[in-house]
Amino acid sequence: MTFHNKKIAIIGLGLMGGSLSLALKKRFPRCILYGVSRSKQKIRYARRNRIIDKGSCDLRVLLEKVDMDIIIIATPVRIIKKVITDIHAVARNKPIVTDLGSTKEELLRWVDRSSFSNVLFVGSHPMAGSHEMGLSVIQKDLYTNTMCFVTKTSKTSRKALRVVLNMWKNIHVRTVVINPTRHDKIVSKISHLPHAIALLLVHTTTRSGAAVLRYAGSGFLDSTRIAQSDASIWIDILLSNKVNIIKDLALFKNATDTLMHVLKKGDERKLRAFLLQTSAKRKKIKSLL
Amino acid sequence: MTFHNKKIAIIGLGLMGGSLSLALKKRFPRCILYGVSRSKQKIRYARRNRIIDKGSCDLRVLLEKVDMDIIIIATPVRIIKKVITDIHAVARNKPIVTDLGSTKEELLRWVDRSSFSNVLFVGSHPMAGSHEMGLSVIQKDLYTNTMCFVTKTSKTSRKALRVVLNMWKNIHVRTVVINPTRHDKIVSKISHLPHAIALLLVHTTTRSGAAVLRYAGSGFLDSTRIAQSDASIWIDILLSNKVNIIKDLALFKNATDTLMHVLKKGDERKLRAFLLQTSAKRKKIKSLL
Asked: What pLDDT, on a 0 to 100 scale, did the predictor assign at position B186?
């Protein structure tokens, strides 16, 4: 399947959905991009700014009128199942459906169990974004040169997987095919644990008022930047991956205990080893990108 | 005291000392800046690149020859006492001495107890820097528009305090006069705790190899940037402020326990409140700068 002349719907017009629509329109000028949002205002804004070609406030109504080739669900995690159920209820063709959600295990287990007859679902999780939200901050290059996880299970349609991989590659996104269980373990470590830690850091340092933070420098600000992210998106993520996150928080706590013990004893040798090893590991990460 | 024509010595030619020397030379072209380092190579580099006017490998020898007006100690924390002792041993005039170290309580207690007859010491802690090290990354604007803590105790010379405050203001650094005990409590929260947390985050996520981190995005990288900092500088900082850091790590652990409990129970209401409050607090911090 090539993408020219295809009909693509994007459900959810926020930073992620809006930026993806722009990138797809730029790469495939002859596709028709349909934007779906409950907010008429967002649709108006998106049409006026040529972020989408057409808009609708009601996915079911839209799908009853138009057979989509690809549907991209760009909503918070908890709404994804509901959207898939809606698509399943009304789609007459067999659209390829993907999402942009940050957790995958629970969703794909549900999708596989449901065995939808008329939805070919493949999960996507692009490692792109910002702590800022909404259509006003969209960027046509948000995804360029980033990486996207794409799920594959025993029930995943080969054709749908190929199309979704192709879509990402076409807008210069490197793809990593992964099973949903492993995906959720990895993102707990690289994204959800760091997010929880940033929140806990802000919480701990502002316990007795935020006054001391008037002196915070770039180190503190960088360490806690992600704590500014949208709460409703993160409630879904933290709850839907809570098993892995709780495990990683427990590991973190153990490491904290060890460090506290080393500090209490003033064990310079162990502290030096910890600092040297850790800073060397961190320096290596940069070079992997 | 004005700064024109003064003799200023900077002990330690790294990022902090080198950048300060450049800023002072730019602001006070008629001062003479003396750089002191054990490394002849660094002195050669600093002279060749006009970072300093004159250099010496031996502070005692230099002070036997030249009466400094101001001496700035830009070494790791643990060496500061040794440098002050050296100055005390050979200075014939009564130079004003300051430092750039990140902890102050232990140092100032020692200074006040020592009652040096020929050293007027005032502690400085500029909230500027980088995780990168050395003369090759110095910037003449490293300090511009940043903030610097300056210590005041019952024994601090008024004159020396005035001169040190003046020096910082002249290179566009906002100063905050503070007592050393309160200083160390504050920087534990805004700098040392975040540093320890960044190290623990890298440590926890790389326990079973660094492989997963090939997928890390900008969130992870920002959260852990400071973990790359120089180990020897941070051993000194963490050990010299360990009482406050251990207290803050304990608070952090308590908050972690609470979050783990909320996640385990799937308590959406509490999780939402935590996320909303914390992200609102973090957003406020930016606006204080």
From this structure: 93
A contacts of B232 (beta carbons < 8 Å): 272
Q: Residue A208 pLDDT > 80, yes or no? A: no
Residues of B whose CB is below 8 A from A215: 127, 147, 149, 176, 186-187, 190
For residue range B193-214, list pLDDT tens digits in order. Answer: 999 999 999 999 998 776 667 8
Burial group, residue A145, by CB count within 10 angstroms (0-12, 13-18, 19+): exposed
CA–CA distance, A271 with B192 (Å, rounded to integer): 14
Q: What is the pLDDT of residue B139?
A: 86
Low pLDDT (below 70) residues in chain B = 1, 210-212, 286-289
- Reported as a single tens digit per residue, the pLDDT across A162-179 is 999 999 999 999 999 999
Show the domains of chain A with their CATH numbers.
7-179 (3.40.50.720), 183-288 (1.10.3660.10)
Measure B208 CA to nearest chain A CA, in Å.
11
Does A174 touch chain B if contact means CB atoms closer than 8 Å?
no
Buried b (16+ CB within 10 A) or exposed e, A233-256: bbbbbbbbbbebbbebbebbbebb
Contact residues on chain A for B221, CB-CB shorter than 8 A: 285-286, 289
CB neighbourhood size of A287 (10 A):
6
Give the whole-angstrom CA distance, residue B112 versus residue A110.
68
Q: Is B104 on the interface with A (CB under 8 A)?
A: no
Each residue of A114-135: pLDDT tens digit?
999 999 999 999 988 777 777 8
Q: Are A17 and A74 spatial neighbours (Cβ–Cβ below 8 Å)?
A: yes
Query: Residue A34 and residue A161: Cα distance in Å, rounded?
Result: 22
CB pair distance less than 8 Å for A223 and B197: yes
CB < 8 Å to A274, chain B: 199, 203
| Residue B256 buriedness (CB in 10 A; 0-12 / 13-18 / 19+) | buried
ipTM value of the model? 0.86
Q: Is A212 on the interface with B (CB under 8 A)?
A: yes
φ/ψ bin of A76: left (φ > 0), alpha (ψ from -120 to 50), beta (otherwise)? beta
Ramachandran quadrant class, A145 (left: phi over 0; alpha: psi -120 to 50; beta: rest): left
